[in-house]
Amino acid sequence: MLYRENGQFKTSYAADQQIFPITQDRLAIGLLLLVAFVVMPMAGSEYLFRAVLIPFLILALAALGLNILVGYCGQISLGTGAFMAVGAYAAYNFLVRIDGMPLIVAMLLGGLTATVVGVLFGIPSLRIKGLYLAVATLAAQFFTDWAFLRISWFTNNSTSGSVSVAGLNVFGLPIESPVAKYLFCLTVVCVFALAAKNLTRSATGRQWMAIRDMDVAAAVIGIRPVYAKLTAFAVSSFIVGVAGVLWAFVHLGAWEPAAFSIDRSFQLLFMVIIGGLGSIMGAFFGAAFIVVLPIILDQVPHWFGIPLSTATTSHLVHMIFGALIVFFLIAEPHGLAKLWSIGKQKMRLWPFPH
Amino acid sequence: MMNDMPQAVQEQTQGTGRRIGDVVLDLQNISLSFGGVKALTDISFNVREHEIRSIIGPNGAGKSSMLNVINGVYHPQEGRILFRGEERRRMEPHMAAEQGIARTFQNIALFKGMSVLDNIMTGRNLKMKSGLLANALYWGRAQKEEIEHRVKVEEIIDFLEIQDIRKTPVGALPYGLQKRVELGRALAAEPSLLLLDEPMAGMNVEEKQDMCRFILDVNDQFGTTIVLIEHDMGVVMDISDRVVVLDYGKKIGDGVPEEVRANEDVIRAYLGTSH
C-alpha cells in the first residue's frame, strides 16, 4: 500500500487534530507497538534487552523530558543529569525509609521531587537566556554531584557511597528478569510519550513554543512568561526525574553519583539536538542514534569477518560515530526527526514530482 | 469621500451601522524617556469606541513607543492613562491583553516554528482554561475546549481568506501573508481595542487594498476600536476617523483627516519649509 492520504477526508475537527491523522501512520505505529510489546519479549535475547533496548528506552524518556524544555520552550539546560539523580535518590529514599512503599508511587514521588528542584533551578530563566542560562543550570549539576557524594543522609549512610535496590515489583509482579524490566520501561515510556505529545499539541505546548519563538509577542498575547517557563521546567524535570528512577532502579540496580555526571547531561543534550529539537519522535531518534549506533558499528567488522583488535574497533567506532554526527548536522540541522518528516512528505507524492 | 465637515464624521458612519461612541482610551500628558533620550513629551489624545484612530509622523517620531505605552510594554514616567474610565497603574503586557487590547508589530512577530493554525490558536490563549494535567490527558474538557476554539479560529481563517495555508509553518510564507496571519492572531483574542503597527509596510498595491478591506471589515463587523500606525498617507486619510500627528516625540496635530491635511505644522514636518 502506498503512503497516501487521498480519500481520507476529515469531517470533524477532532479527526483533524489526531496525533496521527493519516491512516497509514496509525497502522505503522500500531504495528510498531505490537512488535515492541508482543514480538520482542518472545524473540529478544537477554543481551538485547540489557545492553540495547532498556538503556535506549530510558534515555529516550530522559531526552523526551529535556526536549520539552530545550526544544519546545527554548530554555537550554545542562543540568539534566542532576535532575535524573534527584529523581533516583529521592525515589530511593522514599522506598527504603517508608515501609511498604510501592515502586510506582516511589517513582512518581521521585519525579515530583525532581520537579521541585527543577523549578527551583529554573527560576534564573526568568532573567537570563541562552548560554548564560546553560551555565546557570550547570550549577544544578555540580550542586547535586556534591550533595549526593557528601551528604550521607541521601545515601542512607551507605559507607561506600553506592546504593542499591532489590526485589522490585509492581502490583505483585516481580521486575527481575530482563523481559519484565523491558516491558516495565516500555510501558512507562509509552505513557509519558503520549502525555508529552498531548501537552505539546494543547494550549500548554503552544504557550511554550510562543515563548521560544518570540517572547515579547507572547507576552502581548497574554501569556505569562513566568508561568510558561516554569511549567516547562516542571514537566521536563518530572519526566527526567522518572527516567532517572528507571535508570538507577531498573537498568543499574546499584549506583553511585557518577552515574548521573555531567557526561550524562551532555549525552542527553546531544540526543535532543541530533534527534530533532521540538519533536517527540526526535527524542527516540536521538536516543537510538547515540545508544544503538555505536553498538551496531562495533559489530560490523565481525559480520564481514574482518580481523580487527578490540582496541582498533573501539577507536574506529568513535571516529565513524563522530563523522556521522557532523554529517547529519550538516545535512539537516533540525535533526533526524526533520529528515524523517521530509522523507514522509516526499513519500506522499512518490513517484510523481508534484 | 472625506470632504464633509469635521462634525459630519458621526453622521457619515451611521449609514454603515457603525457608531462612534464614548472615549475608551484617554492618554493625558504622557512623557516617556529612555535615560536621557526623550521618546515622548507631554502627549495627550483620546480614542473613541468603534473609531479608526491613526497615528502618523516621520520616522523616529515616537509612534511605536506610543503603542508600547498603550499595551504596557513601556511604562511612561509621567502622565495618566485612563482605559474605560479607570486609571491604569503600572501594568504588564499580559494584563493589557486581559483587558482586551491586542496588537500587531511593525516587524512581524509571529511564532516562526508554528503553523498558521497554531499561531492563531495561540491568540486564544487567554480564553482557554484547561490545566496542565487535563491537557496531558487530552480527554473530555480539554479536547472539547480545543475543538470549540478551533471553530472560532476557523472563522477567522475564513474571514482572512487563508484557508489553504492553515497547516503551513509561518516561516515559509511570503511577507504579505505573514502580516495577514499576524492580524488573525490578534483578532483571535476578540479584542475590543486593536493596535496595528504599520500593517501595510512593504506591501504592493493589491496587498494594501486587501489589508484595508480587512481593517475596515474588522471595524465594521466586530465593532473593534482600532489604533493604526501607517506611513501610506492615501490609506490613512481614506480610512481614518481621526488622525494624530507626532514629530520628535511631540504632538503637532490632531483631528479629522481634512484638518490634519491642512495643518501648517504637519505640512512643515512632512515636506520641510521653503525658504
How would you describe this structure to a colleague?
The complex is a heterodimer of chains A (354) and B (275). Chain A has 354 residues and is mainly α. Chain A has a domain at 34-260. Chain A is built from 14 helices and 4 strands. In chain A, the strands form 2 sheets. Chain A has a two-stranded antiparallel ribbon with strand order 1-4. In chain A, strands 2-3 form a two-stranded antiparallel ribbon. In chain A, a hairpin with a 2-residue loop joins strand 2 and strand 3. In chain A, helix 3 runs parallel beside helix 7, helix 4 runs parallel beside helix 6 (130-150) and helix 8 (203-213) packs across helix 9. The radius of gyration of chain A is 21 Å and the shape is globular. With 275 residues, chain B is α/β, with parallel strands linked by helices. Chain B folds into 2 domains: 13-100 and 191-204 and 224-275, 3-Layer(aba) Sandwich (Rossmann fold), CATH 3.40.50; 110-190, no CATH class. Helices cover 39% and strands 23% of the residues of chain B. Chain B has 11 helices and 10 strands. In chain B, the strands form 2 sheets. In chain B, strands 6-7-8-3-9-10 form a 6-stranded mixed beta sheet, with helices on both faces. A 4-stranded antiparallel beta sheet of chain B has the order 2-1-4-5, covered by helices on one side. In chain B, helix 4 (116-123) runs parallel beside helix 7 (175-188). The longest helix of chain B has 19 residues, at 141-159. Chain B is globular, with a radius of gyration of 19 Å. The two termini of chain B are 34 Å apart. Chain A: This is Branched-chain amino acid ABC transporter permease. Chain A: It comes from Aromatoleum toluolicum. Chain A: The chain crosses the membrane at residues 27-43, 49-69, 76-95, 101-123, 130-149, 179-196, 233-254, 266-296, 316-337.
